Amino acid sequence: MPTATDIAPSGSTGTRDVRLWIGGTSVSLFGDAALWIALGVWVKDLTGSNGAAGLAFAAYVMPRLGAPFLGLVVDRFRRRPLIALLNLVLCGWVLLALLVHDGSQVWLVYLVLFGVGLGVGMHNAAGSALLTSLVHPDALGRANALLRTMQEGGMLVAPAAGSFLYLTFGARAVAVLESATFLVCALCVLAVRVDEPAPEPPAGRRTEALVAGIRHLAVTPRLRAVCITMAGGLLGFGFIETVIYAVADQGLHRSAAFVGVLTVAKGIGSVIGGLGATRVLKRLGPGNEAMLTVYGLSLMAAGVAVLALPGLVTALAGVFVIGLGIPGAVVGLYTSVQRYSPARLQGRVAAAASMLATTPQVLAVFTSAALIAHVDYRLLLVVMTVLIGCSAGYLAVRSRSFVTTAPAEQEEEAEATA
């Protein structure tokens, strides 16, 4: 596993700042995981509906559909103070969940998740851009893998912590925990020392500035291929947010809270997958991160296929293998975006990549919420396997035409296509 010392620029200050950034972000992501998992279970308990529980996740990811606007905001300001401010605002926003008392107020749970998703989407876009100022380009993959491993390690603990707080003190306690993690993240980010250049005013008309990130993805072949692949893969994988409740209920005859146990198994796989991603990156070499996405999606497809088989052991094995693949798929996408995008567009490109990847996921959540009451969940798992597997195959074929370039040439390519 890479350490902050391996990733940071030479000197103790760089190491300190990378540690603060990764530590603060990891704490915040831990709180996010505990929140949306616990609130999804809360919605299930308040309404008795698997579909309504799945929509809780949709509310969380839906704000990313506004990526062009979010990315433009990120590129208009220095990223470090923006991230700190976002986390301070979210610290108060999440406490709106304390006002929910019965099923008639489920809309307020969705509103809280929507607001948190909006803030986290901006945090992710700004954080992706900030990371390029903290580490060397060749270390971006390892930094992303380390951050993802820390996140998945938090996900390993978050379901247990969220479930314990939910079952012992109620969902409001989870909201308080999330509020505290936002505060910790803000303080860590404020302590980071980084030399950020003044943001450049967006060139051209306002509309052109808004879509600049999407246009950059469209005209850069390797980024276009990775985004198309992740869109297809997540179109399939998005069904899991609803189907997993059916797996626990209909397949394993357990309560909705058992989803937390399955999530722990996925988290163990993801921690191991994050560690493995660094080894795969070493073999691939800088500039070949797209193949890491192929590797990750292939594992996810295999895990979903196993999940369709009956039995507790196979269910745990399936989510474990899914977890193994998630870090590689995500790290491959965002490292490619960082390496092949100019500094002035980093926020917009990261936000656009997130939007293009998660829009199909949101559509899948809504679709699966409508289908789950009428279609056998095992059939949906088969459809998921096919979509994810075909997406991985497409990128594997397209990646053969990509030529690895040196960092200086990558920057020239990024500027030329922007």
Automatic annotation (TrEMBL):
One function term, GO molecular function aspect: transmembrane transporter activity
Residue ranges constituting the Major facilitator superfamily (MFS) profile domain according to the UniProt record: 1-401
Topology of this chain in the membrane: Multi-pass membrane protein
Alphabetized UniProt keyword annotations: Cell membrane, Membrane, Transmembrane, Transmembrane helix
InterPro entries named among the record's database cross-references: Bacilysin_exporter_BacE_put, MFS, MFS_dom, MFS_trans_sf
A Pfam entry, by short name: MFS_1
Keyword Membrane in annotation: yes
Main location: membrane
Presence of keyword Transmembrane helix: yes
Annotated PROSITE patterns: MFS
Cellular compartments annotated: Cell membrane
Transmembrane segments: 20-43, 55-74, 81-101, 107-132, 153-169, 225-248, 254-278, 290-309, 315-337, 349-373, 379-397
Any single Gene Ontology cellular-component annotation: plasma membrane
Gene3D superfamilies according to UniProt: MFS general substrate transporter like domains
Protein name as catalogued: MFS transporter
